[in-house]
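Morning!

This is the sequence you dropped in the shared folder:
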Amino acid sequence: MSAEPLLIVVVGPTASGKTALSLALAARFHGEIVNCDSVAMYREFEIGTAKPSAAERAQAPHHLIGCVDPAGYMTAGDYSRRARAVLEQIRSRGNVPIVVGGTGLYLRALLEGLFPGPGRSEPLRERLRQSAERRPAYLHRVLRRLDPDSAKRIHANDGPKLVRAIEVCVASPDSISQMWKQGRSPLTGFRILRIGLNPDREALYGRINLRAQKMFDSGLVEETRQLLERYGDSVWALRSPGYKQGVQLIRGEVDRPSAVQATQQAHRNYAKRQMTWFRRDPQVQWLPGFGDDAKIQGKAIAAAETEAGV
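The structure's back. Tokens below.
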């Protein structure tokens, strides 16, 4: 076996039990858990993020949870730099890092690296988003003029990628397609095991629906109201599923049952996008179940033991 230390990555859709599986792996391998969920990185965003509870966090060290100011923003590049530093710290202690989360872009930045590019411009992004709301095809038309090669690769409905590609064209002498050709700097020094959770879709959707209802029953609207009063509606994380519908309810745009149903649908749609993203990675070892299932945990531990040579 390679002398490189083991790094375990747990991926899967929202509500698939990634937290439970990561805790089981941490208990077996002296693990420390590194969050890779973008919204869970924000302080004061608690109910709508399904962060590990205080009891769960007490079972193993956790990193990069609640580490970003609510009015701030962490780019994929920022995450990669911070997470790589955390991985080195965990390795220096002789423990096993376990990266857990469903934000595919952040995970790709960590493991594969990103091309060098200009920083994020929130004013430009907001103008582009507003234009896209009025004219849905606008962003793709703009990108076709600025960078035809990128426009061929990016779907017309993929707003975040379109915004970033246009941002690069405006802020840099190089297009995003030219930067892709410059290559990336992948993570080195670890033997990486990727484990994916793939539960039955209907069972997953049932869990998602229950979780969304529980968020509203547990005070999601009140938490959202406090965040709005403190930071305003321009905070990025308030656009995430659950918080977005909470804002709409507070403004009187929808009633509570409609907000709950819209949140459930938004999380189901998000789960679909997550699986589409992660299935592109041929290195993921998929397990057909939830992460809180003892049989699934046993299979994941066995895969990690094999990878570690124990």
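Headline: The chain has two domains: 6-114+185-308, 122-180.

More detail when I'm at my desk.
O.
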